[in-house]
Amino acid sequence: MVRHMRWLAVLSVLLIGAVIPIGSAGAAGTNKLEIFSWWTAGGEAEGLAGMFAAYKQRYPGVEIVNATVAGGAGTNAKAVLATRLTGGDPPDSFQVHAGLEIQTYDPEKFLEPLDSLYKSEGWDRALPKGVLTLLQYKGHYWAVPVNIHRANVLWYSKKVFSANNLTPPKTFAEFFKIADTLKAKGIVPFVLGDKEGWESGHAFEAVLIGTLGAQGYAGLWTGKTQWTDARVTQALNTYKRMISYTNTDHAALTWDGAGQYLINGKGAMQIMGDWQNGWFQSKNYSDYGWATPPGNAGVFDALSDSFALPKRAKDRDNALNWLRVAGSKAGQEAFNPKKGSICARTDCNQALFNAYLQSAAKDWQSNTLVPSVVHGAAAIESWAVKYKDIMALFVTSGDVAKTQASLQAACKDAGVCK
Amino acid sequence: MTSLLLIAPSVLAVAVFVYGFIGFTAFASLTKWDALAPDFTFVGLRNYVRLFETVRFQIDLRNTVTFTGFFLVSCLSLGFLLAVLLDQRIRAEGVFRSIFLFPLALSFIVTGVVWRWLLNPGSVQLGSTGINLLLDRIGLGLLKSGWYTDPKFGIKAVVIAATWQMSGYVMAMYLAGLRGIPEELREAARVDGASSFQVYRHIVVPLLNPITLGAVIILGHISLKIFDLVVAMTGPGPGFSSDVPAFFMFDTTFRGNNFAQGAGIAIILLVMIAVLIVPYLVYSLRTETQR
User: The complex's ipTM?
Assistant: First the structure.
């Protein structure tokens, strides 16, 4: 129900945005701070509130306007934001996935570079190198990261695994062996919920990493690995076989709905980002375990939420202070335990975090970092959208050759492949 | 002169906000505007060529044809049937009329959410839900289907929901039409020895032709621009089996920032609707002047 209200919200905001003239853009001097995000659900909203509290503590007297637009992965929010930016009525600061998603907002035209802020706040030392490279676009920093999520996690039901004397699969061969065992017992081996269209592309990221390795996978997004590579064919074949082990109603379910299979002990494994951890906890479900998907050991498929500063922000000073809080240790410690993600900074107090997040933070320090494409880090948005559509189609078509050709064409359209 | 002045504001508003924007959309569809900031480099029909090459758009067009076909046939036949039944001077006619007409008062979003639940297939492991559960319980488990999660069914599941919502409206139109047919005509036919079926076949249905035409126009343009029902009910569906051009337009414009391509889809939608509406407008203008 709620999700569908979101659509209404988007449409009405779009309409209102279209009707209201640009007159309000120049009105400066208010003591407000408008923060635009898509954090409306459970832990996300609490985390945001925590960061607001940290801000108010430092800068009392500023009225914070929480302009959220609901919708998983920010798909609806992006639509509203695009209209506001081009209409000359930007929020003071807005949420954007760290990485090439920033290209969507045409930074040189619509955003302010934050290089000096990075220097004065010491973020170029407090943040890990991998994140800093990820954040740079055309030689500048455009956004401040508040957290890190991991996309390549294999969640499994401990109950199902121990009842059948199984251990999480390290290779795809093991995966299929386990899958056959479980299928024979009427348990869904590989749980998928792909109603929203991005979940299939998300799972395939892990398969690509598992088949091509960190370097080969990262190369796909920079042009160093060709999409015509035989290993991509192999990954598609593997993924096709994995799909044959999914629940029949996957098209009717969102990722969280699919998680119900694990909770009920009717499903065994699911590849999903680490927001699944928070969702399991909200369902009072604790009998789950986590591992890296097959072949993914030592690779951290990362995405990060960050905040950017639009040009012509009405309350620029307040917004700059907001970014200072977002990048600070106090701000990130207030935000991340509730949101269920780890700090982008490396100096957060680990005692504040739960067991999963502590293990993720440890991996974060030692693993090879690769960017997620579905969540905006690896590729420009138009390419990411095409990738998502192609992989959504693959679930039903299963046409390896055609899918590989489309993936290559999408890479060409993005100007990365020749 | 005064009359001209009086309609001038609305003419101006319509000229700018309807035809002006249509013109701008058509123009934008011929440009290279594929990022947030407008880029009005003229690229001719390239966006249209690309669009028709896109698999998703090809599926969308097929879905639109399927949807419109099934939706028109099911709505018209069900609406007509309900109207004929209600026209038999039954008791509590008003109650039934309200019940059949009531779904029309709901928004497509509400209909979509309700039917998403009803047609959720469930699964072997977690058990059936909704209609499938009902079929199970009454021993018709054979008829169970994956509904909108089955790529072969896809958009037809949306037809079920749309028919549920709109057939009452068609019924109301036909009922008004049936009441407008003079009883003498039917009597005369019966005196000539026509059976009930023949009365409907040769007297009632032909006399209802203008109403059928009106219903086709109304339902047709709804089905060509359907968006909210699909969004609320199924999303693009497995393999885009329930996707429609309007949804693709929203996706590509506001999520992919490809404004030129979005404008292209808008223009194609406009042309499709114009193909349906314009002949009707010409026809009704002609009949008006003949009078």
Answer: 0.73
